[in-house]
């Protein structure tokens, strides 16, 4: 029984890492579509999000089945409940990648990334990519050094997010109202993406080390 | 054992309704602070959010304890897992109310609600209030007629959210870039609030009726 259970837990873990990789791919394509006004690529991200949703639902069903058949307690139970939460965060990260692609599609053939903040968005996107790839690796390897890396990237993103609002408030800002909205929303999506990444990282950390550092961030 | 379990489920249900009522109060105050540039009220909402977070954590601990001690299966298990998800949605709704209050505080002594879309925001806020109050009632009474009411309000909010972006794109839009950002973010927060409300309503509906209508909305 115990052996079956361990194999099932391993399966859940691999499946979470698999979903994280799909999200990493979605983010990469979404950002490219956003930066280059590539409407076909944007469309691809939007269509592929249903697959992430499907995988999340399947994983959640698997987790509930484990709860029902194995009746885990203590740390095993927390791993399963934690997996349900991590899958929700990953699914939400997929949604945020889709939202970025939707911004690109909405503005096509124009570029949705306002010129004045394009370098800021590039850096935010790069950090988000690092976060989701690190999350996938963390889920697979439980290499705890990745947690600090993810948190560091998130801190830099928060700073960049704030700088977007300072750019908008600057007298030199000359974008149209619609571009201004795009900038605000894109920045918000990129920032939320990182929050969810941190949330997953903290849950892995808690489940592996048993220590919780008092997260009240993204769910 | 069964009797204890039913009493515990009832406790979880009451606690969820209790959190929903706190969120309703937070939203009401947040919207007033946003509409009237009342920085003290905004501050109150921001401070009170920690209490909602605390109640969510306590409820989740209770749910996990039930899973561990009672090892529920079938529909009982789904109720507990559903409760974990509903509590996450409610906590997130509290965060969104806090974000609205934070916009009010950020712009004080100016008014964060741009004049051109103030009536739209008033209506969105009214609908969000109806949604969260209906969610609280639905959690308490399981009166399924509330589900359609919540979904109807959400549909109207989606329409109003889109209209904010049309207003911003209109040549007559004359707000500053920072006010434009506030409009975009406030609209987004009000729209997401409704999504989470629908998500909770659909989960209650699923748990009570056993029928799922294929939600892929907010988690």
From TrEMBL, chains A, B:
Annotated ranges, domain PhoU: 17-103, 122-204
Coiled coil, from the record: 2-29
Tell me any Pfam family this protein matches.
Answer: PhoU
UniProt keywords (A-Z) are: Coiled coil, Cytoplasm, Phosphate transport, Transport
State the source organism's domain of life. Answer: Bacteria
Entries under Gene3D superfamilies matching the protein: Phosphate transport system protein phou homolog 2, domain 2 (1.20.58.220)
InterPro entries in the record: PhoU (IPR028366), PhoU-like_sf (IPR038078), PhoU_dom (IPR026022)
The record's subcellular locations are: Cytoplasm
Which SUPFAM superfamilies does this entry report, sorted A to Z? Answer: PhoU-like (SSF109755)
Q: Note the subunit structure.
A: Homodimer.
Give the protein family. Belongs to the PhoU family.
Q: Which NCBIfam families did the record assign?
A: phoU_full
What is the role of this chain?
Answer: Plays a role in the regulation of phosphate uptake.
What is the recorded name of this protein? Phosphate-specific transport system accessory protein PhoU
- Which organism does this sequence originate in? Sinomonas flava
């Amino acid at each position: 029984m115990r052996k079956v259970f361990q194999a099932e837990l391993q399966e859940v873990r691999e499946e979470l890492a698999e979903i994280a990789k799909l999200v990493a791919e979605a983010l990469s394509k979404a950002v490219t579509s956003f930066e280059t006004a590539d409407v076909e690529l944007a469309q691809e991200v939007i269509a592929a999000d249903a697959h992430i949703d499907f995988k999340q639902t399947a994983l959640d069903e698997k987790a509930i089945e484990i709860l029902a058949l194995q009746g885990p307690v203590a740390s095993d139970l927390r791993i399963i409940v934690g997996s349900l939460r991590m899958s929700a965060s990953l699914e939400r990260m997929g949604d945020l990648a889709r939202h970025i692609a939707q911004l690109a599609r909405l503005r096509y053939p124009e570029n949705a990334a306002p010129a004045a903040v394009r370098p800021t968005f590039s850096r935010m996107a790069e950090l988000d990519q690092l976060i989701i790839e690190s999350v996938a690796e963390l889920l697979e390897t439980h290499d705890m050094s990745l947690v600090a890396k993810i948190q560091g990237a998130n801190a830099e993103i928060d700073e960049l997010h704030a700088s977007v609002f300072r750019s908008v408030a600057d007298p030199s800002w000359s974008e149209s109202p619609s571009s201004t909205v795009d900038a605000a929303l894109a920045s918000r999506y990129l920032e939320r993406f990182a929050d969810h990444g941190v949330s997953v990282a903290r849950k892995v950390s808690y489940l592996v080390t048993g220590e919780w550092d008092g997260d009240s961030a993204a769910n």
